Amino acid sequence: MDSFLAGHLKDLALRAYNQNFVTCSNFLSFSDIRSFYDDILKVPFNELSGNYLGAKFKIFGGHQDFERGLIYFFPDFTIPDEYLDMEIDSGNFLTCIKATPLNAKFTDVLTHRDFLGALMNLGIERDNIGDILIDSKKHTAFIFVLSSIADTIISDLIRIKHTSVSCKIVPCTNCYIVPEFIEKKGSVSSLRLDCILSFVYPLSREKAKDLIAAEHVFVDGKKILLSSTIVKDGSVISARGFGKFKFISCIGKSKKDKYVILVNIYK
Question: Is the bond leading into 202 cis (omega within 30 degrees of zero)?
């Protein structure tokens, strides 16, 4: 992890512990969150909560399947889950903004890149912006941002490409968009990364190895260079140009002694 970010997280945790108030990071990528576990906590990356330098912490991105999240640090007397239940409505650190076209009949087809580009053209830094979830049929987006910049977005985000839009603050629970998956089950000879990639997309084992060697494959946001890496239950894997999937689990072995696996492929 970047030494500046590591030092900043340390400072936030110590302030929460020593000064008895809640602190919060900016939005972190999945890779940075993974590094927080690997490089700072030095514990396996599993549950998004724990204790660091005496402060309790919880990672939250505004909705259940977030990819970009905030790390909240809590003093001892605060119950993290209760605080985040209130955060969903109060928006102390995190706010959800709903963006809709003024005239849906004549709107452009707007993508994640279009919304992100428009926000950054306002001079907003990337770490102020969390996930952007889009309902392409209704031309609606839910944008998770730091509360400190919400008013700026409400007043200044008036156009995406050629489409005029209206923005308003809504509770996080108003976001109804959830990722859609295609479930795939089958057998593989090994739980190696190249073997799993070959099964999911599908690719030959050699092409899967080439993809990994080209530094185009990420597991839980971390770039992987070894084809022999064993994939663990719950890992989210992305391959540039192919998409993303979640390795649910190895659910047993077949009669031919192969591993039977279950994955969810993001649509």
Answer: yes
* Structural domain boundaries, residue 123: 94-174
Q: Quick check: helix, strand or coil at residue 10?
A: helix
Q: CA-CA distances (angstroms) from residue 245 to 17, 63, 158, 204?
A: 38, 19, 34, 18
Closest CA to 54 of 74, 71, 24: 74
pLDDT tens per residue, range 37-59: 888 888 766 666 789 999 999 99
Closest CA to 220 of 48, 93, 80, 70: 48
Which of 12-16, 81-85, 134-138 is predicted with the least confidence, judged by mean pLDDT? 134-138
Q: What is the CATH number of the domain that holds 120?
A: 3.30.70.330
Lowest mean pLDDT of 84-93, 126-135, 156-165, name the range. 84-93
- Structural domains of the chain, count: 3
Instruction: Give which of 216, 252, 253, 222 is closest to 235, Cα–Cα.
Output: 222
Query: Domain boundary at 32, 66, 90, which?
Result: 90
Please give the Cα distance from 100 to 141 (Å, whole number).
7
What is the rounded average pLDDT of the residues 73-95? 92
Domain termination site, one of 74, 90, 106 = 90
CA–CA distance, 170 with 91 (Å, rounded to integer): 10
- 82 and 100 belong to one structural domain: no
